[in-house]
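Dock NAP; give full complex structure.
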Amino acid sequence: MVNVSSIVLGKGGPRVPVVGLGLWQAGFKMWGPRDEDALREVREAISLAVEYGLTLFDTAEVYGHGFSESLLGEVAGNRDDVVVISKVAGYRVTRRGVVKAVEGMRRRLRRDAVDVVLHHWPPSVHSSVCSVVRALEEAVERGLAKYIGVSNYPEDLLERAVECVKRHEILVDQVQYSLAYRVVERGLKPLAERLGVTIMAWSPLAKGALAGKTVADNKARKNDPVFEAASTDEELLDVLRRVADRLGASMAQVAVAWLIAKSAVPVVGFRKKRHVEEAVAAAKLQLPSWAVRELDRASEKYVSRWGGKYGAVQNLRWVPSPIQMLVLRLMGGV
Ligand SMILES: NC(=O)c1ccc[n+]([C@@H]2O[C@H](COP(=O)([O-])OP(=O)(O)OC[C@H]3O[C@@H](n4cnc5c(N)ncnc54)[C@H](OP(=O)(O)O)[C@@H]3O)[C@@H](O)[C@H]2O)c1
């Protein structure tokens, strides 16, 4: 067991490792073919993470249409030392829909209660944020989940969610945040800090670009303009490479450690044992202030490059929930 630093989620949530591991990749739909060898590697990677003490996992009902939750449940579902975050789809906007979804999650994850349930993306403009977060609260009251939070909620909706909860705290807002996507720093992050909500950073490696990957070899990368921008940004990659060399670390470790230095909890996507080993090393790497300064400077353009306010996944808000649900069902998840 390796000792990994930890942090409390929100004001009074569970204590978790400073780096989480994301299982979108383990759902496979957009990340490549699912064969026995690949599955064995994911299972071994999950076990290795637990052995190392990297016990915070992030998944969602839409990842492989429940497949990634089932895989995690099969390998680590019954463990008390593991903290599982899972996300109900953003098209779930009714009390019944949310509660039923959390029940399904709990079964797939093989846990008595999901540790933290998030609403994956904001409800469509036709629905109310208050109804959604109160439905999440109800899942806690029924013993199906322990804590609640949101994902991809911009400033105004996060504020609304925090105002609406009656008995349970919004622990986290899980948002896109990396050296190549810093728009959250413009308003959302300071607001979350004021509200005592932890920022969890998805795509901390810009889908591998910040680890040095240059080829968009799957649908997830092909559809991502941030991967495209980061993988061709020689100036940023050069600084990242130089900082990593000076510290005797890898680019991926430095990119993840930079987020820890910004008080965010990065969720690194993984499907291989070496991804887990690197995530453990990143969790132990404390960046010196010169390194943070150099990386800040080299990535400054990404504070404003992607718009004035946090907006990832916001286009979905204009699509009515039943249509969102139908499309995702037909796709069999992402
Ligand atoms: N809330 C949301 O809306 C949302 C959205 C997206 C993601 N997420 C969560 O955030 C997690 C991570 O985000 P992400 O999937 O966008 O990607 P990411 O963490 O930025 O990149 C993950 C990919 O980078 C590569 N990688 C990981 N560690 C590496 C290392 N040490 N060296 C070299 N390459 C490495 C792997 O690619 P290969 O597998 O190809 O080797 C891995 O699949 C997801 O799994 C999911 O849990 C949440």
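Observed: The chain is about 45% helix and 15% strand.
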